[in-house]
Specification:
The chain is of the alpha/beta class and 342 residues long. 48% of the residues lie in helices and 14% in strands. This is Bifunctional phosphoglucose/phosphomannose isomerase.
């Protein structure tokens, strides 16, 4: 998948994931789920963070939990939950471990992958499986994943049909968003990005941080309001000449007015100390549009920065090397677990 395709076809990726899911998961449509448990790590967990944001708009009575490590979370979380395991490669050790645990406990499982061992496990166990397009970096399959997740929740009767919203999704204004991304990068310069948003859009701030890490190969951090005004604001009161960060504030007109007021105060105090922050309005026609614009914004910011620093945004050499070394070694805890269940 080439960069220009990724940048200009975000909505198409989402729609493809949504439509090709068909009836996947309908075997569970008689179940009563109280929560959704998404298990994934790295780029394969990002769709879960977006889903948690969307669910607050779709049906805030259903909680979404993201599990990013071995085993399963506490029983109070996986009990009465639909368990969705995502590993783009299909060989992520932590996800495979969680799959085996969930299978042993006979939990309702759905798998999402492009192949690998997870696909093999799903076929063997007749677990509902959504196959992602092959040949992509995990983070670039994000919109396919979130489209499929929405359709799966429809098929399991967790949420009502979103088809009327999906059909009316507005095409992202690529040129406008690209321009906003470049202005943000100009503000950051050679400094470390600090990405801020309301708690409602915490997933966007976090995803942009991840895009900066993986595409631009730099450190980046994210925080949310109102939490920022109770701790991190102090870091902005130092001499601006000694500050090596570039602050980006994601703002949306549908944020709680009290949060918007706190963001205004945050900006005022920074300016009083000679510091500045670059604000970006991410408001879309719907929550879906806001999220999709935010993801595309972060993608373009990281690509612009990578180009500016002459860095290949696609290579993730250290991550791949880390995975290879993990796969070569079996951790003692895994050996112990195997002996217990043997």
């Amino acid at each position: 998948m080439q960069g220009n395709q990724i940048e200009t076809e975000f909505n198409k990726h989402f729609t493809h994931g949504y439509l090709t899911t068909e009836t996947l998961g309908d075997m569970y449509n008689k179940s009563t789920f109280e929560r959704i448990l998404v298990i994934g790590i790295g780029g394969s967990a990002l769709s879960g963070t977006l889903l948690s944001t969307l669910m607050k708009e779709i049906d805030d009575s259903i909680d979404v939990f993201i599990h990013r490590t071995y085993d399963l979370p506490a029983r109070s979380i996986y009990s009465k939950a639909l368990v969705i395991l995502i590993s783009y490669s299909g060989n992520t050790e932590e996800v495979l471990d969680a799959y085996q645990e969930a299978s042993r406990k006979n939990l309702p499982i759905i798998a999402m992958t492009s192949g690998g061992q997870l696909e093999q496990y799903a076929h063997k166990d007749k677990t509902p499986l959504f196959l992602l397009p092959k040949g992509m970096k995990p983070r670039f399959s994000l919109m396919y994943q979130i489209g499929a997740l929405i359709a799966i929740l429809e098929n399991t009767n967790i949420i009502q049909s979103q088809k009327h919203i999906v059909e009316k999704l507005q095409q992202n204004d690529y040129n406008k968003i690209s321009h906003e991304a470049q202005k943000a990068i100009d503000h950051i310069g050679a400094n470390t990005p600090l990405i801020y948003a309301s708690s409602k859009y915490a997933s966007l701030a976090y995803i942009i941080k991840i895009q900066m890490n993986e595409n631009a190969k730099i450190h980046a951090f994210s925080n949310i309001f109102p939490e920022t005004n109770h701790n991190e604001i102090m870091g902005h009161t130092t001499d601006p000449k000694s500050a090596h960060y570039g602050g980006i504030l994601l703002r949306s007109q549908d944020d709680d007015p009290r949060i918007q007021h706190q963001q205004d105060i945050f900006i005022e105090i920074l300016e009083e100390h000679g510091n500045t922050i670059h604000s970006i309005d991410i408001t879309g026609a719907t929550c879906y549009n806001t999220i999709f614009q935010g993801v595309l914004l972060g993608h373009l910011m990281s690509f612009h920065l990578a180009k500016q620093r002459n860095i290949n945004p696609y290579q993730t050499t250290a991550i791949e090397e880390c995975k290879k070394r993990i796969n070569k070694k079996t951790a003692p805890t895994t050996k112990l677990k195997q002996s217990i269940h043997s």
